[in-house]
Specification:
- By secondary structure, the protein is α/β, with parallel strands linked by helices.
- The chain has helices spanning 26-37, 63-70, 84-88, 113-117, 131-139, 145-154; strands spanning 17-20, 51-53, 78-82, 94-98, 123-126, 159-160.
- Helices cover 28% and strands 13% of the residues.
Length: 178
């Protein structure tokens, strides 16, 4: 890890953890925060609690660095990053990182050779309106992370969306630059 990152102390394990790693566009960040704070419409109305980390010590942190720092929280199954792609895309997709994949590190290679040789994906893009749905399903172990990756693969923008939100895609998701 290139720098010591501050410990994250969450009060509520049911609140998704969103870390801002890009500080280039405050208006875009405001849109993300507003989208995360809105209660889901329809049959699932509830307060949309989110644990936001807005600390410049996280600026420019990579997915691997965020995973390593977030792994200190044993109750956390997924962390969401508001990175460069989030700020540049009109969809504002957060980068979801799977902390549950670390559970596979101590597998016996005799029995789990295929899984070791071909590990499951550890990241996927998630629209802000789907963050609560993804987080809750992973916390409850209702859905495995690779299932969300498959959902994103079927989306034209490569993003997991909350199907109950019925939001139209405002445009393609830009890929990170060199």
């Amino acid at each position: 890890m290139r720098k010591e990152l501050p410990e994250i102390v969450r009060a509520d394990e049911w609140a998704p953890l969103v870390i801002r790693t890009d500080y280039t566009d405050d208006a875009a960040w405001g849109e993300v925060v507003a989208a995360l704070a809105r209660a889901v419409e329809g049959e699932r109305e509830w307060e949309a609690a989110v644990h936001l980390v807005e600390d410049r010590r996280w600026e420019g942190v990579t997915g691997d660095e965020a995973l390593a720092a977030s792994a200190r929280d044993e109750e956390l199954s997924v962390v969401f990053l508001a990175d460069e792609v989030t700020m540049r895309s009109p969809v504002r997709p957060l980068l979801a990182l799977d902390l549950g994949a670390d559970d596979d590190e101590d597998l016996d290679p005799v029995y789990y050779e295929e899984l070791i040789d071909s590990p499951p994906p550890r990241e996927v893009r998630v629209a802000p309106d789907a963050v609560h749905m993804v987080h809750a399903n992973l916390q409850l172990a209702n859905v495995d992370f690779p299932e969300f990756v498959q959902d994103a693969a079927a989306d034209p923008d490569g993003v997991v969306r909350d199907v109950t939100a019925a939001s139209a895609s405002p445009g393609p998701v830009p890929r990170p630059g060199p």
